[in-house]
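Q: How would the structure tokens look for this protein?
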Amino acid sequence: MKQSDILATEKQLGYISESANALKIAEENKGRKLTASVVTFGCQMNARDSEKLAGILVSAGFELLEDTEDADFVLYNTCTVRDNANQKLYGHLGEVHSRKKKNPEMMVGICGCLPQEPSAFERLKKSYSFVDLIFGTHNLYAFPEYLSRLLSGERHIYEIMDHSDNIVEDLPVLRKYPFKSGVNIMFGCNNFCTYCIVPHVRGRERSRESADILAEIKKLADSGVKEVMLLGQNVNSYGNGLADEISFPELLKRTCDVPGIERVRFMTSHPKDLSDELIKTIKENDKICRHLHLPLQSGSTKVLKEMNRRYTKEQYIDLALKIRNEIPDLAMTTDIMVGFPGETAADVDDTIDVINKVKYDNAFTFIYSKRMGTPAAVREDQVPETLVKESFDRVLKVVQDTAKEQSLRWQGQVLDALVEEENSSMDGYVTGRLSNNMIVHFEGCKEMIGNIVPVRLDECRGFYYMGSRA
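A: Here is the predicted structure in token form.
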């Protein structure tokens, strides 16, 4: 770990202590415990960031609430990949504004990807002046400092950084599950797909040193974590820019060697640089989960080129089928975008052709969302909404049919499931996750949570199974 990162960590830990002292005084004045709530939008990396934010709040002394309604401090960790995420946030802000009018001492914060987008940041400052704190992705690690300033009475703390060289990962974390955890291995993206805002709000690729990653995983394993997910915008690029670093497949191998770790996942791989070494590593290591998310986006070579995806339809199919052939028990999922500017019915046919050939186990299918600041947003050949809806329905039908067909191939098998929680809708049942990422519900008790147990997959219900203890 760089000396600057160590110093940044120590500085922020000091601010947590300051916040704890200020919070005690505030609670004495109010005669009750102060509460906080973190609301998360977006990807697995955002979810991991929210665990850090929650850990800092709890370390400072806040009681954490799931519901924002009664919270003294509400913090929104935002996403801006698609416009619906933005609109969802604005809807929440409208609701929380009315609560703050009744309780002026309530604190509201916004962080993450949305305020990192300049136009969104300006809108937040202009139209939502009741928000007390706004910060972006590059200075998320400075949240303890901002919290200390808030508790000292400061308001309208708006700080957005264009970039950061610091990687501060040793701050408190409050994990949702005690038995599994995400681990950031890199940040940012260098790919600059023409529709995507991520490189603009998350910045260029920065990898953590493998020794720091493996030390964190060992700590997690020592605390009872059995499953880790290695996180990055493109994990295949791990190590680029670091001197004498190992490859991503080698990092996977070393993660599997950490005592106590029984399952290893990762998210996400870019098709352009998924190597034979990675395929071989997955194939030869039983601890690596049999699930690969391999975003397609479009099946049209013409559209892929305009997206700057740097592979063709044929190259993607060849790669996917090679993986299917080498690892037959692997479940493959994907992202599919419909309505990219200039997309034609023939381009959609190409996408459907890929779905039929690859046979995805599941797919996140979504409509193109114009993001200001990206090349695709200024194109004049935006596809009419009626045509987009028609194309989306066509693609979704094939995705659903193929996924149901794929799900049936596990029926009758006995597979290991990591029990994650008691089932919320069926008394006496628990919910587990298979190595292939499929969900299974079966009879059990809360004492089983966190254990890996063999389960017979009795009945396929589309995207999940009903099972029984084997």
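The mean pLDDT is 94.

The two ends are 45 Å apart (CA to CA).

Upvote if useful.
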